Amino acid sequence: MNENQKPGENNPDVNGAADAKAVDPVADALAQAEKFKNDYLYLRAEFDNYKKHAIKERADLLKYGSERVLIDILGVLDNFERALETKATPENLSQYVKGVELTANDLRTALTKFGVTEVPALGQNFDPAMHEALSSEETAQYQPGQVSRVFKKPYKLHDKLIRPGQVVVAKKPAT
87 falls in which pLDDT band (50, 70, 90)? Predict the structure, then answer.
């Protein structure tokens, strides 16, 4: 140890190699800042690419999202077109009617497959959230306030009403 050196200080003669390897804190901070900057720029570019991809995916979904439904409905349309090409005669009328009924069932099946369900209306209590009242009629067949006739059936897509029913509501007959 040198005479001028206090105990616990590094001896340049002994620890000269350690002092040479000591890193400048400013240079270390600048290097770390540059690394963080590059990481930030990389993440920002990656996020921008993700946003562009998500926007394109959403646009494609809106544009082509109904494709699966339409493929099934086009099959039903083919059946209706074949029925229209067939001439209904008294001899084949029952088969013709049966074919149209089967085609209507195919359409119902296709709609059900994609979550569209008919909401029962006839004989149900009138619900303004589910039905549009076209008029009312006096009838003893249904209780007052119940749906006595249905012009358009109500339909739901999963939990959401997509078409309210157009109905006639029963009222008490005049005595």
Answer: confident
* Residue 171 · residue 137 · CB < 8 Å: yes
Write out pLDDT tens, residues 10-69.
555 555 445 545 679 999 999 999 999 999 999 999 999 999 999 999 999 999 988 989
Domain extents in the chain: 117-175
Per DSSP, the three-state class of 44 is helix
E strands, 35-89, are none
Tell the CATH topology of 117-175: Nucleotide Exchange Factor Grpe; Chain A, domain 2 (2.30.22)
Q: Within 10 Å of residue 114's Cβ, how many Cβ atoms?
A: 13
For residue 67, give Cα distances in angstroms to 58, 74, 76. Answer: 14, 10, 15
- A 10 A CB-CB count for 80 gives 15
